[in-house]
Amino acid sequence: MLNKSEIDELIKSSIMEVLGNSEQFDMNSYFIGAESIIESIDIVQIIAAVEDKLEERGFEGIDFLEKTFENNNLTFTDFSDLIAKEIYS
Q1: pTM above 0.90, yes or no
Q2: How far apart are CA 60 and CA 37, in angstroms?
Q3: Cα 71 to chain center, whole Å?
Q4: Which among 9, 33, 37, 54 has most CB atoms closer than 10 A?
Q5: Longest dimension (CA), the chain
């Protein structure tokens, strides 16, 4: 089982992989929505990277793309909460 800080680290490392420079982002930055400065293709790549990292840790078959876009906006913290809710249920 992953704790919240481990989920946050998965997200942060995925941001680094996709965007390179993650210094302009923190967990309170908007991931999706009108206030997000991340391009759609990068959002999809971040979600895929997180899913891959979760699969490596034994959490298979979870699809966060649709669940993420069911929301109008999410911060990275909100995204982390969404992941925690899914893997803990």
Answers
A1: yes
A2: 29
A3: 13
A4: 54
A5: 33
Mean pLDDT value of segment 29-36? 96
Neighbour count for residue 34 (Cβ, 10 Å) = 7
- Domains identified in the chain, total number: 1
CB 27 within 8 A of CB 8: yes
User: Cα separation of 37 and 19, whole Å?
Assistant: 12
* Backbone dihedral angles phi then psi of residue 32, each to the nearest 5 degrees: -130, 160
**% of the chain exceeding 90 in pLDDT:** 84
Structural domain that includes position 51: 4-88
- Give the C-alpha separation, 62 to 69, whole Å: 14
CA dist., res. 17 & res. 45, Å (int): 9
Q: How far apart are CA 24 and CA 68, in angstroms?
A: 21
60-86 pLDDT tens trace: 888 999 999 999 999 999 999 999 999
